[in-house]
Structures are given as C-alpha cells and as structure tokens.
Amino acid sequence: MADAGMLRFHVPEPEVRPGGTPDFSNVTIPNAGSVPRPEIDVDPRAIRDMAFSIIRVLNRNGEAVGPWAGLLSDDELLEGLRHMMTLRSFDQRMQMAQRQGKTSFYMQHLGEEAVSCAFRKALTKGDMNFPTYRQAGLLIADGYPMVTMMNQIYSNEADPLKGRQLPIMYSSKEHGFFSISGNLATQYIQAVGWAMASAISNDSRIAAAWIGDGSTAESDFHAALVFASTYKAPVVLNVVNNQWAISTFQGIARGGSGTFAARGLGFGIPSLRVDGNDYLAVHAVAKWAAERARSNLGPTLVEYVTYRVGAHSSSDDPSAYRPKAESDAWPLGDPIVRLKNHLIQRGVWSDERHAQAEAEILETVIAAQKEAESHGTLHAGGKPSARDMFEGVYAEMPPHLRRQRQQAGV
Amino acid sequence: MIEAIRDAMDVSMARDSQVIVFGEDVGFFGGVFRCTQGLQAKYGKSRCFDAPISEAGIVGSAIGMAAYGLKPCVEVQFADYVYPAYDQIVSEAARLRYRSNGDFTCPIVVRMPTGGGIFGGQTHSQSPEALFTHVSGLKVVVPSNPHDAKGLLIAAIEDPDPVIFLEPKRLYNGPFDGHHDRPVTPWSKHELGEVADGHYTVPLGKAVIRRPGAAVTVLAYGTMVYVAEAAAGEAGIDAEIIDLRTLLPLDLETIVASVKKTGRCVVVHEATLTSGFGAELSALVQENCFYHLEAPVARVAGWDTPYPHAQEWDYFPGPARVGRALVETLEA
C-alpha cells in the first residue's frame, strides 16, 4: 500500500463568505409538481428517494401544480397569506421595540413564515407542538392573541409567564404550544414522549416536534428518532433547515453529507423534504404526515428547506459571517411573495389588495402593541411582582423558599 | 427493599392508570435488580416497557408524557449513568412548572440505584445527590429501609413535582453497617423490613430520628444511617441519629431541634466531600444553631476521588471513621 502521507483535518466551509458573491448552485431545486404523492400507508422503503428531493407545489409562474396541489380553498389560502403577513409585521414591530430598549431580546422569522403558519393549519385542536424559538407562526395561525405574545416579550404586569422567561419563550397549552426552553433539542424527545402518552392513552391526538438544522447535532435529536421509531409514536418530526445556526453554516451539522431528511431513513422513518417557502407544499406535506400519525402509522420526518433571511437574533450581525445579499440569491424566494403571486394568478388577489392588507395588518399590530405597552415594557410601567419570582418552583412553596421570600422582603 | 419498591409501583399502578413504568431492562426482564419484576405481565406493555439505552431519551420522553398528563416512574439503571439525562432533568423537568407558570407540569419520578460498598468501582458506586439538591424545582429522596422505600416511592409518584429517587443498592437485600467482614442479615430480620400491604405513604420533606440521643446529632441518609448506628454503638456514644430521608426539601426543623439539644453535629455521607450535600447541611446547622454549638460541625464523607475498586473499604466511610469523628466532636 502506498504511503498516504500526513493525516489532514477537515473542517467544512460555506461556499461564500462576506464580500463574496452568493452562490447556491450546489442546491438542486426540482421542478414544482415533480415529486409523487404516495399513500400515507406507503412502505417507507419505497419512498427513500423523497428524502433527497424537494416537494414543491408553486411553480415559477405562481401556479399550483402536481399531486401535492389542490388541498386548500381560496379562503384558506387568503387566510394563510394574512397569517404570514401578520407574523412578518409582528416581527418588524418587536424587532424595533427591542432596538428602542422596550425589551431585551427578540428573534425574527423573516423568510420562514410559511413553515409554522402552514403547518398549524394541518393540525387539529388538541394536538401539541413542541416548538423551538422560531415557530411563532403556530400561535399566530391558531389565533393566539398578539397582545399576550407582546406582554410576554415585554415581561410586563400582564405577562402570562410572570416575567420569568426570556422574551419569545411563549407557552400555551390551550393553543397546543409547549413551553419553549432555551436548551436546544430538548423538546424533540419530549414531543415523542407526549405522542407515546397519547398512544398509551388510546387518544386520537398527535404531537409535532420542531428543531433547526444546527440542533440536529444535539444528542436529543438522535434519542427522539430512536424512540419515535421504536414505539411508532404518533409524531411529526420537523427539521427546519434554514441553512444557518447562528454563524455556523448547515455543513457543520453535516448537511451536505446527504440531507437532514435522510437522517430518518436509518431509523426506518418515512422522511420527506419540502420547499419551506411554499405555503401550499408545507401544508400538504404536514397534512400527509399528520394523517399518517393519526392513522397509527407512526412518525414522519419532514425537512423544510428554507433560508434564515434575518439575523439569528437581535444580538446577532450576520454580515460578519455571510454575504449581505445572500438571501436575495436564495433560489426558493420569499414565502409571502410566492403565495401572493399565486393568489393573484388565481384571480382572488391583487397588488392593491395586498398593499391594503399590509396597511391593515400593520394597524392591527400597532394597536396590539399600544395595548401591550399600556401594561408596561421591560424597564417602564407595570411589572410582575417580585413575589412571583418565588411562586411556581414547586406546586407548593417549600419552607426554604418561604424563608427566602421573607428575606427578600416581598 | 427490592420487594418494597416493586410493591410501591404495583400499588400505584393499580390505583392510577396514569402511572407508567419504563427504563432499560425494566419490562419483560423485570429490571437488573428485579425491582419491576412481574409488572409488565400484570399491567401490560403499555404500562411497563423496555426502553432503548438512552437516559436522555428515557427522561425526555417521560417529561413529554407528564406534560400530556401521565405520571411516569422511570428507571435509570445506575445513578452513575444519569448524566446523559442531566440536561433533561435540570433544564426541563425541574423548570417546566416555573417557566410555563404552571401551564405545563412535570410529575415524574426518576428512580436510580445509588451508592457504593458493593465493589462497583467507578461507575456503579457513585452518590450524585448533590448534583440534584443544587437544582431548584427538584425533590430528592433517599430511603434507608423497606418501609420507608415503599411509602416514600408512593408519595413521590403521587407528588405533583419531579422527584429524584435514589435507592442505595447496598441496602436492597438487607441493612449494611459498613462491617464488610461480617455476614449481612436480610431485611426479614430487621424491624423496618416489615412492609404493610396496600397503599400508604411516608411524607416527603420529613426526617425521622432513628436513634434518640443527647450527646451529638448525626445527620445521615441511606446506607450511612446504619454505619452511624454501628459507630455510635461501638464507640459507646449517646448519639442522636437523624435519617433525613428527603434531602430537598429538607426537614430543617427536626435537624435544628436536635442540634440545639445536643450542641454537636456530625454529618455523614458516601458522596465526595467537596461541595457535597454535607456542606449544605453543615452551613445550615452553623447558621441556625451557632449559639448552641459546642464544637465545629464535622463531616465524614467519601474522599474527593473517583470511586475506586480495590480500595473500596479505604474509601467507604465505615464505622471506624465515623466513630473517630464522633469521639473528636465530643472531645472538641
């Protein structure tokens, strides 16, 4: 055998860094309508290819084409557009509120609005999402009051979480939205446990797990796949691949070694990849996976291919690690523009109505913001009581916490 | 004690269909220590089942089940192997009620065999209780006998908060006072081996005085309760031995009343000394009993080393070491 020389250490790098020209030529985008739609009880082995393709419905002309099209009515699509526009408007206002010092922190969904907004519409009341910090569309699309979300962001006297949680770490059992944790991936296996509990209880409700591309590297992702597969848990395992984990490109989590969807194949889990900026495709795939789960056919892994257009958070500056115009070059475009064009193409929407809707939504968001600010912001106005700090650690306050509350004088 | 623990799960599963038991080798086989024997046959695979070898998966899925409304009582095969689940326990189970303002809760029990004295070496002997008593939102329980084990475990399963339930495996088959050169007697010959049928609880957060005394207070739990009893007896010291039973929340009242009476205090545990639970006990005694103390609070603990194999009895704080600390505290 020939001498191979010194070993060399490999560290993947993104194609382009700041100053370079964005290049997504390595991302293969199949044509809309080209991926078949199997029956939900398909043998997972028969659809392995789907983990390497991308299910798309909307084509370049804004037409809905192929076997995954045709599930939503005009009214449902118009509602979906409104949800996405509301989330974007909400993000803009809250990002600005953070810059104005009204809160400490915010995280936007820019470019990813279709994923959570469309997914929510594929679930039924009573189902439970285990979201990350970038799925607030689940709340918006379920009619959770924006004022309550803002109260949480402001940690004010009306904050349902009593000021204990960092902004955007919402919780609403009623709206099927599990309490968000700062610790990444932890909720992925919890979602599987929730789904197992539903099956143990012979219930009909299902769970949805959420994770980003970067966090798939956490060990809880692996645990979740093993448990979901072993117990055939009624869960939809969502991976939102927005290409970036803060400054780290998805290749560091070993995207590019295959796909994130393909991770499911080793566990025998049917795994689909979908255009995350295509509201119709996201909804159709989510519905397929939810039906599988509800029909006792077990878990489905879904990778949403999208792009994180905004900064990671209000504490991040992406121009330090990726080209400024990279999001403009993203081949799957903008989810709102694409649905808007489709609705115009369908003859139920227009640029004028869109501009009008945008103004109306902004007005609604501003009204909600005014109401929320009347309850206080982080540094001004109404606050949760310092007594609330000691409550809820346990069901009943133990003696040592009662003593500490007395010491704190509250 | 194994039968008492199994009985506690049996009683709880029979009373409440929400109680679910799972873990590695827990189902068909009945557990490597036989603690779940027969439960799968009796309650079916939906109530008692085997899990993949993933502690984070076991605890993480249990948290999801609890959020749904079940009451999972899960097993980690050895406390030494709980670390992969530490994130789930600390960041999730302990915080869920607080961070969601009660929107979601986590009534789980994580059972795990703990402690040394069995030639378990580094990864079958650890006592990691201090890693849990430092976590707000958890309860931490260590029984020392079959009667308490059953009552405390039923109470833990019924408790609305997450409970870390550490079972001293050295005590599974009989009490152990640290005299490894003497034959071990089974629980059937011990009064606390008597376990009542059916449902009863031993309340969490309540210590018990195992041996009343006037000269010195000994704070102990698990195996060290018997070591302390032997040490006091052999040294002829009128020690008051308190079995803490629950470390968090702690029964400070019983501790303070005793130390104020005796004026002296020795804390004993198997876990390593530095930042061990004994440091918290010692600080609390000092804060609350300062004017009653006649001597410095002493701590007898495992050395600050990983748990060794061949040097088992040089490591384990046996009756000789505890006895010396008692004598020194009385002479101080």
UniProtKB/TrEMBL annotation, chain A:
GO biological process: branched-chain amino acid catabolic process
Protein name: 2-oxoisovalerate dehydrogenase subunit alpha
GO molecular function, one term: branched-chain 2-oxo acid dehydrogenase activity
Keyword Chloroplast: no
Entry keyword set: Oxidoreductase, Thiamine pyrophosphate
Catalytic activity: N(6)-[(R)-lipoyl]-L-lysyl-[protein] + 3-methyl-2-oxobutanoate + H(+) = N(6)-[(R)-S(8)-2-methylpropanoyldihydrolipoyl]-L-lysyl-[protein] + CO2
Family (UniProt): Belongs to the BCKDHA family.
Coiled coil: none
Entry EC number(s): 1.2.4.4
Domain Dehydrogenase E1 component: 83-379
Lineage top rank: taxon: Bacteria
2-oxoisovalerate dehydrogenase E1 alpha subunit N-terminal domain location: 7-44
Protein role: The branched-chain alpha-keto dehydrogenase complex catalyzes the overall conversion of alpha-keto acids to acyl-CoA and CO(2). It contains multiple copies of three enzymatic components: branched-chain alpha-keto acid decarboxylase (E1), lipoamide acyltransferase (E2) and lipoamide dehydrogenase (E3).
Cofactor(s) it depends on: thiamine diphosphate
Start and end residues of each stretch annotated as Disordered: 1-36
Enzyme class: oxidoreductase
Keyword Oxidoreductase: yes
From TrEMBL, chain B:
InterPro entries, sorted: THDP-binding (IPR029061), Transketo_C/PFOR_II (IPR009014), Transketolase-like_Pyr-bd (IPR005475), Transketolase_C (IPR033248)
Enzyme class label: oxidoreductase
GO terms (BP aspect): branched-chain amino acid catabolic process; response to nutrient
Keyword match Oxidoreductase: yes
Superkingdom as given in the UniProt entry: Bacteria
Transmembrane regions listed in the UniProt entry: none
Keywords for the protein's UniProt record, in alphabetical order: Oxidoreductase
Molecular function in Gene Ontology: branched-chain 2-oxo acid dehydrogenase activity
Signal sequence range: none
SMART domains: Transket_pyr (SM00861)
The Transketolase-like pyrimidine-binding domain, residue ranges: 1-174
Cofactor(s) named in the record: thiamine diphosphate
Enzyme Commission code(s) on record: 1.2.4.4
UniProt-listed PANTHER family: 2-OXOISOVALERATE DEHYDROGENASE SUBUNIT BETA, MITOCHONDRIAL, 2-OXOISOVALERATE DEHYDROGENASE SUBUNIT BETA-RELATED
Protein name: 3-methyl-2-oxobutanoate dehydrogenase (2-methylpropanoyl-transferring)
Organism: Mesorhizobium metallidurans STM 2683
